[in-house]
Amino acid sequence: MSRDLREVVVVGASLAGLRAAGALRDAGYDGRLTLVGEEVHLPYDRPPLSKALRVDDLPLPDDGLRAEWRLGRRAVGLDSRRRVLTLDDGHTLRYDGLVITTGAAARGWPDPHVTLPAGVFTLRGKDDTEALREALGAARSVVVVGAGFLGGEVAAAARALGLEVTLVEAAGQPLERAVGERVGAYIGRLHQEAGITLRTGRTVTAFHGGERLTGVTLSDGTGIAADVAVLALGAVPATGWLEGSGLWLDDGVRCDAALRALRTDGSPVGSVVAAGDVVRWPHPLADGEPVALGHWTNAVDQAVVAAGTLLAPERPLPFDGLPSFWSDLHGVKIRSVGLPGLADEVRVIELDLPGRTLEACYLRKGRLVGALTVNRVRRLAGYRAQLRADLSAGLPAGLSAGPSAGLPAERSPLTGDAVPALP
Known about the structure:
This protein is of the alpha/beta class. The chain has helices spanning about 15-25, 45-50, 125-135, 150-160, 175-180, 180-195, 295-310, 380-390; strands spanning about 5-10, 30-35, 70, 75-80, 85, 90-95, 95-100, 105, 120, 140-145, 165-170, 195-200, 205-210, 215-220, 225, 230, 235, 255, 260, 270-275, 280, 290, 325-330, 330-340, 345-350, 355-365, 365-375.
């Protein structure tokens, strides 16, 4: 452990920040530890916010961190040369080691000159979900703009509350860019069979209403009445406070394989590491290209490695965590491992909409990079093992096409029949 490390500041009192602080203590760091969080809340679990619009029973245990908490405070500046952090109340914090875990913010409406009526929401934190739930309690209809994972989960949760829900997506299918067209179409049918009106290939061009939202207009001219709208347009890494710091900002904090923050010349910044949604780092599944992931497991795994790098800078270990995510929509369990969004080929192994099952694997240049199942959780184990073995072996991008690679594309391993298209 570095003997020079007596003051560590973690900026971002999030899941990643909490886990990084815990990893520091677990590894024997006994110096001063300060966590800075923009929200007034102690760290809490975010997945229930969108998956069920739930805001209770979320706190994450801190396991006796012996930390100083600076909650309700934003970091507004970093002098990496002098190792000084500035907060929005004017106070400064000196550090020997800095962990950046500021995460990401919800992407707002793209035209900043448009004044949105009350009733249009974004969702990122606990306070956002509380405000949305209150609005939905008095609403009859809601439009969700963006059918990614968050948008789909919000739409499903609103529908479960009995609301009329319209889900608007610019692409041809929900999640098309992340999971491919056919799997996206399957998920789209799940939404439709749950009673959600799905409008794909269109965008929202206008919001209507005076003090309160009354409806929206789509790009095809269609008007939709709505009491509430939710913008689920993705996330923006929270790096504004790092402008001018000398760190390499490129749709996130650019880091090396050991999660050390980099300067624009590619050299590591001394004693600064990062973890979670704010990070872009080279992943072997992406042939070493930088990726950014907003997954729960990624935040946890990266936090441990970042803490290790800070404590032992002379022995930095590369982070090769295997991404995974989950989502529960309309009573089905969607599980994924790897990076399906990188694939240039999707092999649909099983597709049964009435039976609510699906299995697909994702290849990049003929090599396995990910897999996704619906209500087939056990089948994911083989893909996970193959991807993990490839990463552990240090082989580039998984040299095997995985347990289903020998199957012809678009054929079922269960029956040998061609996988049917969705009716």
